[in-house]
């Protein structure tokens, strides 16, 4: 496989590493040293057999504070709830309402500056999946 982010729109690295308040697409660098209490998300996308497969995982560096733990638990809960509604015929726009509802119930919000995306032959392709309640016509899920 080939790392999809590498040289995509001049992105200089093979993965994205977003530390603490960086929402996504952070650029790894050797000058940044992780320290206990940091939270890091590692986003890996590989182009293999004609398809881009995108995934990420969040890690705690040592012991993190209760607020970070609560944020991580909430994002995991929202992710799982969003997956649970996915089935043929469901509008992609429904995902955002599920995510935002869980985030708000826990005292958090969803960013409106980025979105999720489809996985396929083109990197960062449709459908765009907004992480907040919306009525965007981004299609419906197929079998």
Structure description:
The chain is an alpha+beta fold and 143 residues long. 22% of the residues lie in helices and 24% in strands. The chain has 2 helices and 6 strands; from the N terminus they run E-E-E-E-H-H-E-E. Strands 1, 2, 3 and 4 form a 4-stranded antiparallel sheet that branches. It has a two-stranded antiparallel sheet with strand order 5-6. Helix 1 packs antiparallel against helix 2. The chain is flat, with a radius of gyration of 16 Å. The model has no long low-confidence stretch (mean pLDDT 94).
Summarize this structure as a short list of keywords or feature phrases.
143 residues, alpha+beta, four-stranded antiparallel beta sheet
Q: Kindly report the average pLDDT value.
A: 94
- Protein structure class: alpha+beta
Strand segment tally = 6
Unreliable residue stretches: none
The dominant shape is flat
* Count, helices: 2
Radius of gyration: 16 Å
**Helical content (DSSP H or I, runs of 4+):** 10-25%
Biggest β-sheet, characterized? Answer: 4 strands, antiparallel
Straight-line N-to-C gap: 27 Å
Give the SSE string.
EEEEHHEE
Strand content: 15-25%
């Amino acid at each position: 496989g080939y790392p999809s982010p590498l040289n995509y729109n001049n992105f200089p690295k093979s993965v994205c590493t977003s530390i603490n308040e960086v929402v996504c697409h952070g650029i790894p660098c050797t000058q940044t040293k992780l320290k206990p209490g940091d939270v890091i998300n590692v986003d890996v996308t590989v182009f293999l057999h004609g398809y881009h497969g995108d995934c990420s995982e969040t890690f705690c560096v040592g012991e993190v504070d209760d607020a970070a733990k609560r944020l991580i638990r909430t994002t995991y809960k929202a992710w799982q709830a969003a997956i649970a509604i996915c089935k043929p015929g469901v509008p992609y726009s429904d995902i955002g309402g599920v995510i935002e509802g869980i985030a708000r119930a826990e005292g958090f919000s969803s960013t409106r500056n980025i979105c999720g995306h489809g996985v396929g032959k083109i990197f960062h392709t449709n459908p765009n999946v907004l992480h907040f309640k919306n009525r965007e016509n981004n299609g419906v899920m197929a079998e």
